[in-house]
Amino acid sequence: RIGKTTLLRALVEETAGRRAYYVNLGGVVDIDGLFMRMVQAGVGRQRGTLEQLGELLSGVTVKVAGVSMPLAVSEGKAPTNAWEGLEALIQSEVERGEVLLGLDEVPWMLRNMESTRANSGRRLAAVLRYLRQSLPNLRMVLTGSTDLFQTARAMGASAEVNDLKVFSLRGLTMPSAIKLCLDTAPALGESAAEDVLHMVTLVGDNPHWIRVLAEAARPGDAVADIVERVLGPQGRWLFEEFHPTNLRARLGEDLGPAVTEVINLCASQAEATPLAELKQMLSASHFGMEPVYLLMDMGVLERDGESVRFINQLLPEWWRRYIAA
Fold it and tell me: In whole angstroms, what is the distance from residue 89 CA to residue 37 CA?
């Protein structure tokens, strides 16, 4: 929660002079799912009447809940599958002027597609690049919780993303983090400087979690009181994205449980977790140490010598209370 989705949504909402769409791709595992997410986000909806959209996509069949369903039926040349339908849908948008597509969690989608069907992730990366380069009115902003270039490289698709400009979101500098904390909760005041510093380091300089702690603070509170207020019963869903069910949905039936095992082991440790212990636990998995590196790439874990530790100390405490328990 470094703020990528908030930033992307704001970019889409505040873009003037062009149509813009936010498309959440978390949990998408195939081209049918991507096509439906695009339609649900409104892409192609403003082309004209629903009947015109139906004509554009006549003959396209997608799977919904495992059942193949034609989107429309008509005569004449038309897209015949979701791959062709996706291109037709986007091309229909740019015919009327500039369009911005804000695609969130692209690396997860590419990973999931590649796991579901070999080379489908790479094919999609190539299609998106073709659309970016061939349609002058189209702009794309791709975001992800993990490194898109590393994901593309793993599936042999580096060339399909090398036209993109890279922007990385990082935690705040310490002075900025402290200022944000005090701006959010002025009642803390300078007399609580040590507590403010403790709160900031507790969550790894992450602006979202600094606000969460600061908004929960009351005059005279110790940091332990603030943490307890945040992680109390009302905090059951604070880290919902790391719930095992959601990890499985985002990362797939194999990698999701492997990542869950890593979080569970690390959360059971008092402080850092030896890499050797993680390697031993994952020795029987065909993923090897990938779940650990993935969590490091996501900004969940960081290396500490020959061990790893949580960057946000609220996460392991939440896990122990609501998942491990």
Answer: 12
d(CA 157, CA 142): 15
* Model pLDDT for residues 102-144, shown as the tens digit of each residue: 999 999 899 889 888 889 999 999 999 999 999 999 999 999 8
Contact status, residue 52 vs residue 32, Cβ threshold 8 Å = no
The reported pTM is: 0.69
What span, in angstroms and rounded, lies between the C-alpha atoms of 126 and 161? 8
Q: What's the confidence (pLDDT) of residue 11?
A: 87
If you count them, how many residues does the chain have?
325
Nearest-angstrom CA–CA distance, 8 and 21: 10
How crowded is residue 99: how many other Cβ atoms within 10 Å of its Cβ?
22
Catalogue the E-assigned strands of 111-260: 138-142
Report which of 164, 145, 149 is spatially closest to residue 296, judged by C-alpha positions: 145
Q: CA 110, CA 4: separation in Å to the nearest integer? A: 18
List, for residues 32-85, the tens digit of each pLDDT value: 999 999 989 988 765 443 444 455 555 555 554 444 444 443 334 455 688 888
Nearest of 7, 16, 38, 14 to residue 98 by alpha carbon = 16
Encoded amino acid at 126, one letter: A
